[in-house]
Amino acid sequence: MELEAPLAGRALVxxxxxxxxxxxxxxxxxxxxxxxxxxxxFLVDGVVAVTSDEVDVRNALNTAxxxxxxxxxxxxxxxxxxxxxxxxxxxxxxxxEIPGISEALRSSGLAAGSLDAGLSRGLVGVSGSTLVxxxxxSRAAIRDGMATLTPLASQVISDLSGLDA
Length: 165
Fold this sequence. Notes:
Helices cover 46% and strands 21% of the residues. The chain has 165 residues and is an alpha/beta fold.
């Protein structure tokens, strides 16, 4: 008899990309993040694509937090261009930042050769009882970021649930 692995938590993926949100370009990052989250034991509630607009990003993040997911991973909009508003909006949504995880994501991304991960302004923090994470949108940044993130996310979610308190 095979035992089922315990569920790490519920997750939602938010893709911040104008072309994907307007369906002019097929999203390749959502399925990748979903696959990596599933492999890490998360139940992915869905993938939402929004434009790089402050209101759209804020609504997506707030909806996820209100919906009670344990983890929100946003992909894109973390760079330095004027349309990259994800970290700015995320800062408004967070109750507490966790700078150590943000720094680990940038550091491991650079070490793996992902320049956009190293240049990312992405934030990580807690809103209510939800862990919110911003990742750069390249496949390399996502793969490396998820490998760095998942064990840390599991610890944060466990701490937030109070089960180990």
